[in-house]
Amino acid sequence: MKKWFCILLLALITNTLAQDNIVIGWSGAVTGPTSDAGQFVIQGIEDYCAYANEDGLIPDYTITCLTSDDGYDNDNTLRNFEGFLDEGMNAFISYATGATLQLKVNATEEEMPVISASLHIGVIDPPDNEYNFLPITSYSEQVVALLDWISENHEGDTAKVAMLVHPSAFGRAPVEDAQAAATELGIEIVEVQEHGEGLDYTAMLQRWDNSGVQYVIGQSVQSPIAAMLNTANDLGLTEKMTFMGAHYTGGNTLTSLAGEAAEGFLWATSFALADGIEFQRELGERFGRGEETVSDVNYTTGLLQAATFIEAARRAAEAGDVSSNGVHQAMLAMNENGDGVFDANGFGVGPVSFAEDDRTGVDALKLFQVQDGSFVEYSEAFNSETFRLVHPPQ
Description:
Layout: H1 2-19, E1 21-28, H2 35-54, E2 62-69, H3 74-86, E3 91-94, H4 97-110, E4 114-116, E5 132-136, H5 139-153, E6 160-165, H6 169-172, H7 175-185, E7 188-194, H8 201-210, E8 215-219, H9 222-234, E9 242-245, H10 252-258, E10 266-269, H11 278-286, H12 291-294, H13 297-319, H14 324-332, E11 360-362, E12 366-371, E13 374-377, H15 385-390
Parallel strand pairs: 1-2, 1-3, 3-4, 4-5, 5-11, 6-7, 6-8, 8-9, 9-10
Antiparallel strand pairs: 10-12, 12-13
């Protein structure tokens, strides 16, 4: 009898501990391809989790954020996901596009809510999309919004556009929607070039110049875009071509790497400018982050992802169910049909909202432009109607 009493007591203690601990997993590229973004994303996640625990955002609960470097390797991401399940994970923050797309089936099988640093529209398109969320607008909408801008502002004959994209599912993510939008808008996409290692930007840019390209849209991270801009500046092409890009191309890291070559760069994103988010700066200083981190938009990315899941977990705790299903239901209840939207601490250009038919958190985007060496607001928050025309909700 004593033996069975001890077993029962141990089970009760274990269950209590499990209930009092909310586990959020993150797997991403701290090393390897795109790590110039991932190294800041992880810091944002870790800092927001530490802040949430120190300030008791979820009373009576401890938030455990498990983070692991996957080197941008899809197999490593899957192993990390499975390992976090063994640790009692309640929600998962994904990173790489390829890995996130592969994990859609796993998320559905495990009924595990997933929010992704990848903004590939396929993450939230059927099939197996019930448990997946995007923190902000997709790459597709961002690129199409830039094409809208070209259509509205171009003068003369047919506008000619080239795209420089990352050699991965991430880089290729918006290409199909961009091509459909270009056709709709009467724009010619002359070439889609994957940059890879050893790409001769001089030869590429001269080829585009000879083809009459007037606009270049980037879909990559900052370092290759900065390399292209510096080469274009050396060739005198920054005066002839307008350079622009989707979310991961922009931010202070780009202006730091490209210097004067970044002047005039047009950037589409749903995140607020990092330098203008007072709370972000407070968190960075609180946890000893340097200026490079605090002012980087990828730090904002990590903060917003962690904040969104922790707010969902807080609401789930109030409802008495912090299981993965409880967190998932709390995410879906962050909608505009009541008081459910999450203000997101100013990290986005608008609040976070989700619903059964809306898996995009910050629904609107803004255009920002480099002026006198810094990004400034170029537009009000808006949505691309052309994007909705070429990629209707699915």
